C-alpha cells in the first residue's frame, strides 16, 4: 500500500514540474495565433490575415509580408496553418505581435542575402498558384508580383519588362521557367538598358529573347 | 735519283725547284700552250721526290713544308693569274673565262694531287687536315669564286632577262657557270642559293610583277591566261636548260603568285571577258585553261569557284525576277520558270564536269548558288509550291499525250528531284505535291507508270517516309479498280439488281494516305442513297474491320437534264447534283428551303448556287438576278436553257488550299521538332542548349530548315510538359526527365 502511494506521489510531482523554455514559447505563439485564427477551422483565414497585416502595419501585398510567409513555408496564399505560424514565429523569435513587427526589418535584410533571395523569389511564384494543377500565373498577377518582389532592387528592368509583358501577344501566362529566367536576367545582365553582358545564344527563355529584341528595337 | 739503299737527302730548296718546274709545265699544258705532255718517267720522278722528302728522317722530314707548298701553288696561281684573267673581262666574256678557268682548275688539282699523293696517304689523315683535293678546290673558291660571283651573277641575270625578252643566249655557258656555283658549295647548295638563286628569284618577281600590271590592263582574260601559260612553260624550260632543278618549285611559285594569285580578283572579274563572261558565252577552252592554271596553286581555285558561284546565283536570281515580273495577278508561270531552272542547272553542271574536272569545290559552289535562289519566293508562292505545281501540270499533260516517250519523262523527273534537293522546305513540297496528286488521281487523267516512277526516285533520294503516303494513294487507285470490278459482280449476283439503273463507281481511299477532306451531312437524292446502301452492303462482305466515311465533296455526277429544247448531259459535282435534283419535285425553291433540304453549310451552298445560276451556264434562274447569292434569293429551274453542246461540264471552283497547306505543314513541323528534341535528350540525357539546338537542326535538315525560335518554343513547351528540365546548377543545360 505504501509503495503504491509513493509511486502516485512521485507521478504527481513530475506533472507539476515547471514548463521548459521551448514549451513556454510555443504556448505564447499559440496564444497570439488564436487572436487571428478562425474558431471553426483553426486556420488563419483571409479575414484574419487582413487583421494581422493591419496590426503589423504592413499591407498584405508588401514584400515583407511575403517574406514572413516564406519563413513560415506557408503553402496557401491567404491562409496560415498553426504549424506554419509556429514555425515562423519560432524562426523570428517573436513572442508577441510587437516583437513580430520589430523583427520584420531584420527579416528583410536576411532574406535579401543570396542564396535566400533566389529561393524566396521562386517561392513567391509557387505561392501565387491558386488552383490544384495550375502551372502558370496570368500576366496581370505576374506584373504585380514582379513589382512587389523585384521593384525596389531592379526598378528599371522591372518597369521595362512589365511594359513589354503588357504589349506582347505571344504569351498570356508566365510559367516557372520564365519567372526564374527573369531573375537570372536581372542578376547576370548587370548593365541595363545597355545589356552588354547579354548573350542571345544562351538558353534564355524565348520570352526574354523577345524582350531584349524589343528593347533593342526601341533603342535604334 | 737516289735509291733507297743510298739515300741522298733532298732539301726543300731542291725539291721546290723540281716541283716548280713541274707546275710550270702543267700550267702551260692546261692553258693550251704548246708543251709536250708529261712522260711517265717524269711523273714517277715527281711522285718519288715527294715520297722521299716525306719519308726522310727528321729533321729532313718535309711533309708539312710540302703541304704548305702545295697550298701555296694554288693560292699563288689563283690569286695572281686566274682571278685577274677573269676580272679583266666583262659580260659573257667574263663568264667564258670563268668557265675556262674552272675547267683548268679541275685537272690541275687532279695532277698535282697525284704528284703530292703521298701526303694524302699519311700526313693529312694523321693530322686531320683537309685532303689535297679539298685544298685545291678551297683555294679556287676562296681566291677566285668569292671575288667574282657577284659580278658573274649580275651578268647571268642580265642574260636571263634578255632571253625573257625574246633574244637568244648561250644556254650551255649558263649551265656551266651555274654548275660552278653549285660545286663551290662543297656539297651543299648554299652558294648556289645564296649567291645566285635568291637574286634571280627577286628579279623574276619584279619582272613578272611588271608584266602582269601591263597585261592586266591591256589584255582580255583569255589572252592574259594564254600569256600566263606561255610564261610558265618557258620558265619550266629554263630550269631544264640551265637552272638547278631545286629552283623549279620556287620559280613556279613566284610566277604563279605574280601572274595569277595577286591579280586573281581583277582577272576573274574583268568585264566582258572575265569568269562571268566566259560562262555566259560558253568559252569552255578558256574556262578549262583557267581551271588548269589555278588548280596548280594551293587554294588557288577558291576565287574561281567563288566567281562561278556568284555568276550562277546572279543568273538564277534573274530567272526568279523574270518570273516575278511576268506573274499576272499573282499566278506564276511555273512551267516556264522550272524549265528554265532545270536548263540552268544542266548547263552549269556541264561546266562543272568538263571544264572544272568534277572538282568538289565547284560542285559545292553550284549547290550553294542553287540553294540561294531556289528558296526565294516568287510572287507569294514558295518554290516548293511552284515545283509541286510544275509536276502536277507535267503529269497531267503527259497522261493525255500518248506520244510522249518515257526517256524524256524520266529525264524531267530526274531534274525535278535534283531541284528538290536544293529546296530547304522539302516537307512543304511533299504536302503540296500530295494535295495535287490527290486531285490528279481523283479527277484528272493520270498515268500509273509515271506516278510510280517519280515516287521511286523521290524515295531513293529522300527516304521511304517521304513518299509512303503518296505511294499509298497510287496503290489505292489500283485497288479501287479491283474493288469496282468486284462490286459490279456483286450487284449482278445480288437479288436487288442494279439500283434503279444508276451507274455507280466508288473509290475507297485509305485515311491517312490522302489529304483530309471535309465531310458533310449532305442529303442525297433518294436514287443516290440506294447506291450508297448497296455499296455499304458489298463492302461489309469484304471486310468487317473498316468504317466507311463518304466524302460527297469529291464526287462527280452525270445528270441528264431535260430542258425544253433538248436534253443535255451535265457533269457536275455531287453537291451540285443534290441541289439540281431538288428541283425534280418542285419548280421553285427559296434559299432557305434549299438549305434545309440539301443540308449543306452556308458557304458550300452559296458556292454551288453561284456556279449554277450566276456563272457561265445558268441552269437555274435566280431572283433577284444579281451577281451574288444572298439568303433571301429564290431559285427556279431554267427549262429554257440550251446550248449547242450535248454534254456540259460545270466546274465547281476549288477552295484555295495554299494557306491550309502551310498551316498543316507548320503543325507537322512542331510535332517533328518535339519528337526530335525528345529523341536527342533521351539518348544524351544531359545537353547544353546550343548543342541541343544544333543537333535538332541537323536531324531535321533533310526535310526542312527549322526556325530557331520555334525550336526554343518547343523546348519551353517540353519543359512545361515535364519532358525536360533545366539543370539547377547550370541553367544553360537541359536534362532529360525520365
List the helices and strands and how they pair.
The complex is a heterodimer of chains A (220) and B (738).
Chain A: H1 2-15, H2 21-36, H3 46-56, H4 63-72, H5 82-92, H6 97-112, H7 116-128, E1 136-138, H8 139-150, H9 155-167, E2 173-175, H10 176-188, H11 206-219
Antiparallel strand pairs in A: 1-2
Helix pairs in contact in A: 2-5, 4-5, 4-6, 7-8, 7-10, 8-9
Chain B: H1 12-30, H2 40-55, H3 63-87, H4 91-115, H5 117-126, H6 132-164, H7 171-183, H8 190-218, H9 221-241, H10 247-261, H11 264-268, H12 275-280, H13 284-295, H14 301-326, H15 334-353, H16 360-373, H17 383-400, H18 406-422, H19 426-443, H20 448-462, H21 464-493, H22 526-542, E1 556-562, E2 567-573, H23 574-582, E3 588-590, H24 591-598, H25 602-613, E4 620-623, E5 634-637, E6 647-649, H26 658-684, E7 686-688, H27 689-700, H28 708-720, E8 724-726, E9 733-736
Helix pairs in contact in B: 1-2, 1-4, 3-4, 3-6, 4-6, 4-7, 6-8, 7-8, 8-10, 9-10, 9-13, 14-15, 14-16, 15-16, 15-18, 17-18, 17-19, 18-20, 19-21, 19-26, 20-21, 26-27, 26-28
- Main structural class of chain A: mainly alpha
Strand content of chain B: 5-15%
Output mean pLDDT of chain B.
Answer: 88
Could you tell me the mean pLDDT of chain A?
85
The largest sheet of chain A has its strands arranged as 1-2
Computed CA radius of gyration of chain B, to the nearest angstrom: 49 Å
- Count of discrete alpha- or pi-helical segments spanning 4 or more residues of chain B: 28
Largest beta-sheet details of chain B? 3 strands, mixed
Assembly type of the shown chains?
A: heterodimer
Distance between the termini of chain A: 99 Å
The helix-and-strand class of chain B reads mainly alpha
The beta-strand count of chain B equals: 9
Low-pLDDT stretches of chain B: none
Amino acid at each position: 500500500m505504501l509503495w503504491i502511494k509513493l509511486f502516485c506521489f512521485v507521478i504527481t510531482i513530475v506533472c507539476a514540474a515547471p514548463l521548459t523554455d521551448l514549451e513556454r514559447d510555443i504556448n505564447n505563439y499559440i496564444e497570439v495565433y488564436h487572436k487571428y485564427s478562425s474558431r471553426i477551422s483553426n486556420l488563419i483565414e483571409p479575414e484574419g490575415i487582413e487583421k494581422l497585416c493591419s496590426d503589423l502595419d504592413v499591407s498584405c501585398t508588401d514584400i515583407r509580408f511575403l517574406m514572413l510567409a516564406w519563413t513560415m513555408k506557408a503553402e496557401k496564399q491567404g491562409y496560415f496553418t498553426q504549424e506554419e505560424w509556429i514555425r515562423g514565429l519560432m524562426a523570428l523569435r517573436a513572442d508577441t505581435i510587437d516583437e513580430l513587427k520589430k523583427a520584420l526589418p531584420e527579416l528583410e535584410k536576411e532574406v535579401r542575402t543570396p542564396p535566400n533571395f533566389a529561393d524566396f523569389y521562386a517561392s513567391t511564384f509557387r505561392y501565387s498558384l491558386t488552383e490544384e494543377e495550375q502551372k502558370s500565373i496570368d500576366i496581370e498577377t505576374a506584373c504585380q508580383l514582379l513589382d512587389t518582389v523585384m521593384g525596389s532592387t531592379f526598378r528599371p528592368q522591372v518597369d521595362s519588362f512589365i511594359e513589354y509583358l503588357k504589349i506582347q501577344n505571344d504569351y498570356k501566362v508566365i510559367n516557372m521557367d520564365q519567372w526564374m529566367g527573369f531573375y537570372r536576367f536581372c542578376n547576370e545582365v548587370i548593365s541595363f538598358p545597355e545589356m552588354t553582358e547579354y548573350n542571345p545564344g544562351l538558353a534564355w527563355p524565348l520570352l526574354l529573347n523577345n524582350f531584349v529584341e524589343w528593347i533593342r528595337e526601341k533603342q535604334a | 735519283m737516289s735509291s733507297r739503299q743510298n739515300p741522298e737527302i733532298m732539301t726543300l730548296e731542291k725539291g721546290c725547284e723540281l716541283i716548280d718546274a713541274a707546275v710550270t709545265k702543267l700550267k702551260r699544258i692546261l692553258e693550251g700552250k704548246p708543251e709536250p705532255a708529261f712522260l711517265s718517267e717524269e711523273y714517277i720522278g715527281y711522285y718519288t721526290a715527294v715520297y722521299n722528302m716525306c719519308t726522310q728522317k727528321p729533321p729532313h722530314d718535309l711533309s708539312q713544308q710540302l703541304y704548305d707548298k702545295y697550298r701555296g701553288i694554288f693560292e699563288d696561281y689563283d690569286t695572281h693569274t686566274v682571278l685577274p684573267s677573269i676580272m679583266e673581262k666583262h659580260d659573257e666574256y667574263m663568264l667564258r673565262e670563268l668557265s675556262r678557268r674552272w675547267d683548268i682548275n679541275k685537272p690541275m688539282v687532279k695532277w698535282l694531287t697525284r704528284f703530292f699523293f703521298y701526303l694524302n696517304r699519311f700526313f693529312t689523315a694523321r693530322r686531320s687536315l683537309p685532303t689535297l683535293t679539298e685544298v685545291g678546290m678551297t683555294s679556287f673558291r676562296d681566291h677566285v669564286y668569292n671575288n667574282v660571283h657577284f659580278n658573274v651573277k649580275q651578268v647571268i641575270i642580265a642574260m636571263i632577262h634578255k632571253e625573257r625578252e625574246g633574244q637568244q643566249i648561250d644556254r650551255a655557258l649558263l649551265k656551266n657557270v651555274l654548275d660552278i656555283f653549285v660545286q663551290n658549295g662543297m656539297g651543299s647548295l648554299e652558294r648556289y642559293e645564296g649567291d645566285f638563286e635568291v637574286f634571280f628569284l627577286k628579279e623574276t618577281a619584279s619582272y613578272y610583277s611588271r608584266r602582269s600590271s601591263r597585261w592586266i590592263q591591256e589584255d582580255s582574260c583569255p589572252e592574259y591566261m594564254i600569256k600566263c601559260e606561255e610564261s610558265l612553260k618557258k620558265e619550266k624550260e629554263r630550269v631544264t636548260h640551265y637552272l638547278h632543278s631545286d629552283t623549279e618549285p620556287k620559280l613556279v611559285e613566284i610566277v604563279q603568285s605574280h601572274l595569277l594569285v595577286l591579280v586573281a580578283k581583277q582577272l576573274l572579274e574583268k568585264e566582258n571577258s572575265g569568269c562571268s563572261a566566259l560562262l555566259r558565252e560558253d568559252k569552255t577552252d578558256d574556262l578549262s585553261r583557267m581551271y588548269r592554271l589555278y588548280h596548280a596553286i594551293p587554294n588557288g581555285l577558291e576565287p574561281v569557284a567563288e566567281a562561278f558561284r556568284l555568276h550562277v546565283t546572279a543568273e538564277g536570281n534573274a530567272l526568279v525576277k523574270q518570273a516575278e515580273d511576268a506573274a499576272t495577278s499573282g499566278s506564276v508561270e511555273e512551267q516556264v520558270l522550272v524549265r528554265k531552272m532545270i536548263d540552268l542547272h544542266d548547263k552549269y553542271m556541264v561546266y562543272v564536269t568538263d571544264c572544272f574536272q568534277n572538282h568538289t569545290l565547284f560542285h559545292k559552289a553550284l549547290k550553294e548558288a542553287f540553294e540561294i535562289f531556289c528558296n526565294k519566293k516568287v510572287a507569294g508562292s514558295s518554290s516548293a509550291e511552284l515545283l509541286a505545281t510544275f509536276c502536277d501540270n507535267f503529269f497531267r499533260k503527259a497522261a493525255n499525250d500518248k506520244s510522249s516517250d518515257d526517256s524524256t519523262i524520266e529525264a524531267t523527273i530526274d531534274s525535278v528531284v535534283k531541284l528538290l534537293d536544293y529546296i530547304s522546305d522539302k516537307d512543304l513540297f511533299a504536302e503540296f505535291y500530295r494535295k495535287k496528286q490527290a486531285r490528279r488521281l481523283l479527277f484528272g487523267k493520270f498515268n500509273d507508270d509515271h506516278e510510280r516512277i517519280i515516287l521511286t526516285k523521290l524515295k531513293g533520294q529522300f527516304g521511304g517516309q517521304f513518299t509512303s503516303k503518296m505511294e499509298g494513294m497510287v496503290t489505292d487507285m489500283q485497288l479501287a479498280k479491283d474493288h469496282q470490278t468486284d462490286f459490279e459482280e456483286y450487284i449482278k449476283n445480288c437479288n436487288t439488281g442494279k439500283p434503279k439503273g444508276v451507274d455507280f463507281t466508288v473509290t475507297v481511299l485509305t485515311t491517312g494516305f490522302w489529304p483530309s477532306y471535309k465531310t458533310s451531312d449532305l442529303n442525297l437524292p433518294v436514287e443516290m442513297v440506294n447506291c450508297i446502301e448497296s455499296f455499304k452492303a458489298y463492302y461489309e462482305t469484304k471486310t468487317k474491320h473498316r468504317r466507311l466515311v463518304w466524302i460527297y465533296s469529291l464526287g462527280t455526277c452525270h445528270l441528264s437534264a431535260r430542258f425544253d429544247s433538248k436534253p443535255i448531259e451535265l457533269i457536275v459535282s455531287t453537291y451540285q447534283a443534290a441541289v439540281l435534283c431538288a428541283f425534280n419535285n418542285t419548280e421553285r425553291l427559296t434559299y432557305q428551303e434549299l438549305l434545309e433540304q440539301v443540308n449543306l453549310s452556308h458557304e458550300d451552298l452559296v458556292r454551288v448556287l453561284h456556279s449554277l445560276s450566276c456563272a457561265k451556264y445558268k441552269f437555274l434562274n435566280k431572283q433577284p438576278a444579281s451577281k451574288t447569292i444572298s439568303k433571301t434569293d429564290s431559285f427556279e429551274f431554267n427549262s429554257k436553257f440550251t446550248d449547242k453542246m450535248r454534254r456540259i461540264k460545270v466546274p465547281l471552283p476549288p477552295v484555295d488550299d495554299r494557306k491550309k497547306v502551310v498551316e498543316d505543314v507548320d503543325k507537322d513541323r512542331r510535332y517533328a521538332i518535339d519528337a526530335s528534341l525528345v529523341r536527342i535528350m533521351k539518348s544524351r540525357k544531359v545537353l547544353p542548349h546550343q548543342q541541343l539546338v544544333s543537333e535538332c537542326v541537323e536531324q531535321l535538315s533533310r526535310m526542312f530548315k527549322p526556325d530557331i525560335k520555334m525550336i526554343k518554343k518547343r523546348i519551353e513547351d517540353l519543359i512545361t510538359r515535364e519532358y525536360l528540365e533545366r539543370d539547377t546548377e547550370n541553367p544553360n543545360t537541359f536534362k532529360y526527365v525520365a
